[in-house]
Q: What sequence folds into this?
């Protein structure tokens, strides 16, 4: 994917960075990977701390664990510069703010969870809500 770099992140592990400018509304890229069921995702990653899964409205998941696409390295942020949008069972990442070269790309994961895991956030933004869970 052109225009993107993967480097160490101050937020978490590796991050996805802009190698060029992006304007609000511009598609940064597509989240790609193997299509699997939610049950298969649970089987594969029940004991893993880090996954690269994106749950689709259909209930299927995109498993990017072994996909080379740098989009999977976009970290969560409570004040993101991108958003995820679903179209026809595909996930696209779109800029919501002007993004300069060298800036880390982020979007709000808005995770849902049935367990007691607080899913802590490490984004460090001024208005961090302290969790990657969806806003209440």
A:
């Amino acid at each position: 994917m052109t225009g993107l770099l993967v480097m160490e992140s101050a937020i978490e592990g590796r991050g996805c960075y802009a190698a060029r400018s992006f304007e609000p509304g511009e598609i940064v890229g597509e989240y790609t990977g193997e299509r699997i069921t939610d049950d298969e995702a649970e089987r594969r990653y029940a004991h893993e701390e880090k996954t690269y899964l994106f749950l689709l409205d259909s209930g299927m998941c995109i498993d990017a664990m072994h996909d080379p696409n740098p989009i999977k390295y976009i970290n969560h942020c409570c004040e993101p510069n991108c958003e995820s949008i679903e179209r026809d069972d595909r996930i696209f990442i779109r800029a919501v703010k002007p993004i300069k070269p060298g800036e880390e790309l982020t979007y709000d994961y808005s995770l849902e969870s049935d367990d007691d895991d607080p899913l802590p956030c490490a984004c460090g933004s001024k208005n961090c809500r302290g969790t990657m869970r969806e806003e209440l």
